[in-house]
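Narrative of activities, Objective 1.

The group set out to show that a structural description can be obtained from nothing but a protein's sequence at a throughput compatible with the screening campaign. Below is one input-output pair from the validation batch, recorded exactly as produced.
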Amino acid sequence: MKHTIRPGNPMHAQFQALATYQARHFAYAFDAGVATLTLNRPERKNPLTFDSYAELRDLFRALNSATDVKAILLTGAGGNFCSGGDVHEIIGPLTQMTMPELLEFTRMTGDVVKAMRLCPQPIVAAVDGICAGAGAMLALASDMRLGTPLAKTAFLFTRVGLAGADMGACALLPRLIGQGRACELLFTGRAMSAQEGLQWGFFNALHEPQDLLAAAQQLAQQLASGPTFAHGMTKTMLHQEWAMTLDQAIEAEAQAQAICMQTQDFKRAYEAFAAKQKPVFMGN
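Output recorded for this entry:
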């Protein structure tokens, strides 16, 4: 279950770039500041395994220090996003594990979500077809979600005899779609339709399947070409302010904005405005 970072791997503790990262349990591509992660077991609707969970956790942790990755696109191959944990490679073995082993696993899956929320780069999820279980949690943990009319999102943990409380679902989902709607999905395990997802705020927009990836790439590229240091600050504040009072949040944002005002991107934006030009942000 454990995933080890080997010497020489770009994810070694001292790395500074992830443009040439070689993924082992999903597809990875890098272009113009955007890292694209594609879950690519289409014959099984892209389920997760112990190894792919661990590699996703390690990669998102490594992105904290990546100087070249400005935005992340997360998607699935073959017309589906992710069907969740692999029934044969994860669910079956879990039924034979001891309590300490089970807790190690559930903490690891939660660490994937923690790493996604703590990495500074905005994450865009492109969701088509099945988006279920842990796959739904990967979409939920992303910063923005684009879907298709065919997308079916299900937090189906109760359908396999488990609590809806998995990987932070009870914290994240109510904040996104509201307590009552979250209760319905987490208790029943039913699939949320794409239109419901759009109306409830789960999806930012819907696109036809043939247009989804291009739309997600365009959004990710737009984010990557923006003031990425400031984007990282925005993501940090969105995450931290959940636990703050309004007064604390206002003070934290005052400090965050003062820091951003010291960046060269802030100066570049002013100079471009004065020259009636479009600013070119460098992320510093």
